[in-house]
């Protein structure tokens, strides 16, 4: 259990309920956000933990859920959509389903039970009294990832695209580093004053964080190129050199992040694969 209160008000239009699924990939757990008053939207209902579904229902007691909105279909984000819809009759909407498995074996994995009533694309919206959620397509962490803008609060619900505690893992073949970087760049011109991520605290200086995230990924890319400048190397060798002191539970995820960078660099003609070894392109 956790000392986290059942429901926290983080903005006059936004409440959040924390799922009890802490891990090296989820921080303290997945945060389900409730938007509005009276007639509300639930963003990222989270894992299918009966206690969490009950906590969401308790948090909106006396209100009506009019939309269950999903940013992407990792298993810590969408499985509770079905039980919540069954309990309330609310439609499930947001990202498109992904039927393939990422093959990583990581706990994130895709939720193949996700079956939306409405698939949303860039610019689509859903609204209620005093609130509007507008879809912003941000592929990269997953190919189906959406953020949702709440213009009435100058806020953006960023799912796992931008988190308040760590950078996102990008897992090929569905995750795409080039798309992820482009999606970070896409947010830069926006006027959002605050981000509400699915993991970690609200982000009150979005542009500063975005610049830091972009810089971090570019540094990682340069680190890979410098490492390969010393000679061909395997991904485990690169992880050992680049992620000193890494939690062993995160080594596989780090390797997949490196692979995502390598695929992007390969597509840009900077590196090449030779079996399990990678080297600089001639």
From TrEMBL:
Keywords for the protein's UniProt record, in alphabetical order: Hydrolase
Taxonomic lineage from the root: Bacteria, Pseudomonadati, Pseudomonadota, Alphaproteobacteria, Sphingomonadales
Keyword Acetylation set for record: no
Name of the protein in question: MBL fold metallo-hydrolase
A Pfam family the protein falls into: WHD_BLACT
Ranges where the Metallo-beta-lactamase domain occurs: 28-199
GO molecular function, one term: hydrolase activity
Family annotation (InterPro entries): LACTB2_WH (IPR041516), Metallo-B-lactamas (IPR001279), RibonucZ/Hydroxyglut_hydro (IPR036866), Sec-metab_biosynth-thioest (IPR050662), WH-like_DNA-bd_sf (IPR036388)
Classification via SMART domains: Lactamase_B
């Amino acid at each position: 259990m956790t000392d986290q209160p059942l429901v926290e008000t983080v903005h006059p239009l936004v409440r959040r309920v924390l799922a009890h699924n802490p891990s090296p990939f989820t921080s303290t757990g997945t945060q389900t956000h409730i938007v509005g008053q009276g007639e509300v939207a639930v963003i990222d209902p989270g894992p299918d933990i009966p206690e969490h579904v009950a906590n969401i229902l308790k948090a909106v007691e006396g209100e009506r859920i009019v939309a269950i909105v999903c940013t992407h279909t990792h298993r810590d984000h969408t499985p509770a959509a079905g039980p919540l819809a069954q309990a309330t009759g609310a439609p499930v909407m947001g990202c498109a389903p992904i039927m393939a498995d990422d093959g990583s074996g990581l706990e994130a994995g895709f939720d193949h039970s996700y079956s939306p009533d409405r698939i949303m694309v860039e610019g689509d919206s859903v609204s209620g009294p005093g609130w509007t959620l507008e879809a912003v397509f941000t592929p990269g962490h997953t190919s189906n990832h959406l953020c949702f803008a709440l213009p009435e609060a100058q806020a953006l619900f960023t799912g796992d695209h931008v988190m308040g505690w760590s950078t996102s893992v990008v897992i090929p073949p569905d995750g795409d580093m080039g798309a992820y970087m482009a999606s970070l760049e896409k947010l830069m011109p926006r006027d959002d004053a605050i981000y509400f991520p699915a993991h970690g605290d609200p982000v009150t200086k979005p542009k500063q964080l975005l610049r830091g995230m972009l810089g971090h990924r570019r540094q990682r890319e340069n680190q890979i190129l410098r490492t390969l400048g010393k000679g061909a190397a395997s991904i485990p060798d690169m992880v050992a050199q680049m992620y000193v002191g890494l939690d062993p539970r995160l080594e596989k995820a780090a390797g997949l992040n490196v692979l995502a960078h390598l695929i992007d660099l390969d597509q840009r003609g900077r590196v090449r694969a030779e079996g399990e070894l990678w080297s600089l392109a001639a």
